[in-house]
Amino acid sequence: MRRIKVWLLIVSALALVSAGAAVAHGKRGKTHTDAVSATLAATQARIANKTCTGEDGAYRAFHGKWTGTSTGDPRLTGKLRLYARGLVNTTTGSGQVTGWLGIRGEKSWAKARFVAVVTGGTGLNGYVIGWVRDKTGSTVEETAGSGRLLGSIFGTIAPDGALAARIGTGAAVAVANIQGGGCSNHVHGKRR
Predict the structure, then answer these.
(1) How far apart are CA 180 and CA 163, in angstroms?
(2) For the segment 86-95, what is each residue's pLDDT rounded down to a tens digit?
């Protein structure tokens, strides 16, 4: 339980630092924040499992690769690759999964790290932190533009099967956004 709290604190801190950096170092005229969501569907391409016994029951450790598709916001639509490493208590169904995912569209790509708590043996509830690059040239403000991707990820990941998840929706904080640009002049506090 203590490790879960530490991971959640680390993710929260990274999200705040990343959001601040995206705002502080932007370019004039290109500032935007767009709510996004995407549905991820993938099958297992490779997996390695290991079992052990811990103080509170049996455990399964795994790391693997999943491939499939992502659909939703145009910047998050395309071929999906996901690499994950997890440790799940098979007695309680609780654990953690960490990894990264990549989404490649025709003229866009996204890459993000994710951390998630596992419940019920396969349920995911966590966060993604990454970057989206958009080269479509679209002028539709809500679905165009590069920037930092921050948000929730919710779904299921089976260590020996399929992945079904959503970015931008979940049971708790159901949000994700892509933010780019920032204010042209730096905000400085007064020194005392």
Answers:
(1) 29
(2) 999 999 999 9
